Amino acid sequence: MTSSPLLLLAQAQALYPQTKLPLHRPVDLSLNEGEIGILFGENGAGKSSLLDRIVFGKRTYTGHIHVNRQNIAYLPQMTVAEFQIPLRLDELSVWNGTVPTVPSTRLWNSASGGEKQMALLEMVLAHHSGDGVLVLDEPTNHLAPTAKAELEARVLRWLRETSGRAVLIVSHDPDLFSNERTSSFEVLRA
Questions:
Q1: With bands split at pLDDT 50, 70 and 90, how would you rate the model's confidence at 101?
Q2: Residue 1 placed within a domain
Q3: I need a labelling partner for 55 at 20 to 30 A (CA). Which of 13, 75, 92, 171 fits?
Q4: Is residue 73 included in any domain, yes or no?
Q5: How far is CA 91 from CA 24, 30, 151, in A?
Q6: Exposed, middle or buried by CB within 10 Å (0-12, 13-18, 19+), for 132?
Q7: What pTM, to 2 d.p., does this model score?
Q8: Using CA atoms, how far apart are residues 185 and 62, in angstroms rounded to an integer?
Q9: DSSP strand pairing (7-14 vs 72-75)
């Protein structure tokens, strides 16, 4: 068990880059080894902007953010990933050095949003085998209930495979990881 938090936010607020005014109220958060933290709040409250400051270290914030950015595995919010890849989902996994959890012969360009989301999650997890923080921005968007359960199971396996790991998720899904030890942190507009 690590003695200090893997991620610590103390009165952290993302700021609008131009005006330097806060996007949301201050957030206090501490994630230790084996923990899952969920940031929730209404649309436009600043959750994804706060993740930007955590993951990329953008200096447009106030308060304190402590995390080893070299040990972050990040899956951004998928809006519409419409880039063209002339590969099947199972080929994409092999090409990227991962093993597909659900083999699919569907082409990337014709895959559903949920299939794309799961393929991207597998790639992120495969390339982050050490300790650190997994950061997921709206990972259950586009997922059917069965795929949501698969995502939860896969993230939990990753969390438990190695010590020194934690997970931070932005979600509107109140039932996400409801059977696990999670901490929820509300992000409120400023």
A1: low
A2: no
A3: 92
A4: yes
A5: 42, 38, 20
A6: buried
A7: 0.87
A8: 18
A9: unpaired
